[in-house]
Amino acid sequence: MITDDFRQTPYGVRFDWGLTGAAALAETSACLVIVDVLSFTTAVSVAVHRGTRVFPYRWRDETAAGFAEDKDAALAVGRRAATAAAPWSLSPAALRAAPRVGRLVLPSPNGSAIAAAARGVPVVAACLRNAGAVAGWLAGRGWGTAAAPVAVIAAGERWPDGTPRPAVEDLLGAGAVIAALGDGGPLSPEAAAARAAAAVVVDVAAAVRDCASGRELRAAGFADDVVIATEVDACAHVPVLVDGAFTAAPGAGGGCADAR
Question: What structural domains does the chain harbor?
Answer without folding.
Answer: 13-248 (3.90.1560.10)
